[in-house]
């Protein structure tokens, strides 16, 4: 039996991980620590039984240390982060404070509990990072892998790179058992509606424009969140101490391809279910117009990375990781989730800035 402290567990990926872990390991202890800032949403954990939820900040040293002791924590899964590039361009300081200093506080608490006081008790600190720390790729460049040099291009990715380096340093300097995973663009249920896919789904349902940065040909490796949390589980259980693993979906798609898939899927959903026109009367299909008429191109954001791609070969060889399904299937499931969970996104929609990946 393990006792997990999951930071940012009310966020998008964190909530999916909590749900996955509780379903597969019903006897483990789970403490969720989340500050419930704009992207944290307590209802994302509704129905998950036998968890301890603590509203609090990872930068609160006394709180983190108390949770470690009171719940005999032996694993930390660290999701909590400021994570949106557009927001980091307008307010970089918050990203450095949370992503760098917050990670440092957690590492110090872990070192004190597991090494200084615990005399080397079995433990693991799993740090969730991003492929954005590697910078951008040209059209013919090989995908990112664990040995790719860091070259972050935004305050967000720079803050995540710094936190990655801290985690690595605590392994090499103090012997802390750590694993880091760098993932590609996630999508799926419970994603806060400022990211491209949920934002554009909700915009389409409301008849609002679909704002496309530049020419829309920025390429991303799309990873379904269910595949990602399985990859995290494998790294947590099987990963070698001190190692990093790249977790990808194997689905390189330009933003325009994703948006065209979304528009076609929304049109098909309205054709298959006439009640959607009653529920969402402002959507173009409710007025016999294609969703694609909402597409509009806007000025590209500063320093926008052109292409991300992940080589997950190491995770496949060492962990047995593989994405289960392709984008088309998982996107359909994602769209159906948002159509079926209108109450969830209506309650938080006002908190979402109209920005995107």
TrEMBL record:
Reactions catalysed, as given in the entry: dTDP-alpha-D-glucose = dTDP-4-dehydro-6-deoxy-alpha-D-glucose + H2O
The record's EC number reads 4.2.1.46
Where would I find the NAD(P)-binding domain in this sequence? 5-331
Gene Ontology annotations of biological process type: nucleotide-sugar metabolic process
Task: Identify a single GO molecular function assigned to this protein.
Answer: dTDP-glucose 4,6-dehydratase activity
Record Pfam families: GDP_Man_Dehyd
Keyword check for Ubl conjugation: no
UniProt keyword NAD, yes or no: yes
Q: How would you classify this enzyme at the top EC level?
A: lyase
Q: Required co-factor?
A: NAD(+)
Keyword set, alphabetical order: Lyase, NAD
The family this protein is said to belong to: Belongs to the NAD(P)-dependent epimerase/dehydratase family. dTDP-glucose dehydratase subfamily.
Q: What is this protein called?
A: dTDP-glucose 4,6-dehydratase
Species source reads Edaphosphingomonas haloaromaticamans
